Amino acid sequence: MRQQPVLAAAKFPGKHAVQRLCGCVGCAKVLRGPRRTTAGPAVLPADWPSRYICLFIRTAVCLNQRVADKKVKKTGFGWMHLLWLAAVTLLGMAMVPPCLCVVYDKSYQEENLWRCRTIVVALKMYSAEHAGRYPDADSSLPVTANQAFRILVRDDVFTDERAFGVMAGFYAPDQDIGQAPDFQEALQSGENHWAMTKGATEKSPPVLPLIFENAVSNGWPPTWNVDAAREKKPGRAWKGGKIIVGFNDGSAQLINLESSRGTSVGPKKGADGKDVFTRASASMEILDIER
Fold it and tell me: At what angle do helices 79-128 and 145-154 cross, to 10 degrees?
């Protein structure tokens, strides 16, 4: 039979000693004194590890509760506590709106980047069936971006208008595209957010901006209203001076403007003194939206 560990002079804290530590009879009940054999010194009980672990935990909890009770009885919940609580609450409320604005900006930008890429891919699909030309070269000779994009609906590249509006944008489609074959109700005035470069083809430089967010001026390069960020106004840019551009290589990205303030700000120039527009071509025409 397995022998119990023997302590020659075992000294265990009795239940009264435990009561003096934490004042709880419950802790003392966990521990029972060392039992003695019929002959020989006291031996530890077989389950002594679990007993002492339980005793340690219960004693720590009880002591902590006693300290907490004493503090509450001594100090209470006074006006200083209320003042601190109010200050923390107000600080938290003040931090929420800016954080939400940043989150919304990122979410809207990702959604609008996806819509921009969708339109660029659609233009690529159209050009593949029209000798590398985009719809602005159609025989109907469109003079606005709305008219050029309506051809994509007419040729069944798009079946609705949703991609041509944006989240947090001033212009929004009404989802009424009219009847075949002309779909004259598609992309009417005020239903398209995206301007388009005129005269581009599949063979134009890959870095050529093909479509981009509507601007306040349509020179080359165009300019945008940064002060109108987070407002539903024509030609607005994103907070911090950014706009979304879709390129002839099929990509779409946010590009930086020259300044984070201003009502007519152009794209940021690089070390060569050129921006994303003038770097691709010295001069191009723009098909503006129908406002």
Answer: 70
Please list, in sequence order, all residues whose beta carbon lies within 8 angstroms of the beta carbon of residue 138, skipping any fewer than 6 positions away.
148, 151
- Could you give the maximum distance between any two Cα atoms of the chain, in Å? 115
Q: How far apart are CA 159 and CA 192, in angstroms?
A: 15
SS3 state of residue 286: strand
Give 229 or 99, the one with higher predicted confidence: 229
In whole angstroms, what is the distance from residue 84 CA to residue 265 CA?
Answer: 45
pLDDT value at 23 more than 70: no
Contact 160, 175 (CB under 8 A): yes
Closest CA to 195 of 156, 229, 222, 155: 222
pLDDT band at 247 (very low <50, low <70, confident <90, very high): very high
pTM to 2 decimals?
Answer: 0.66
**What does the DSSP assignment read for 126-144?**
HHHTTTTB-GGGSTT---S
Give CA 117 to chain center in angstroms. 19
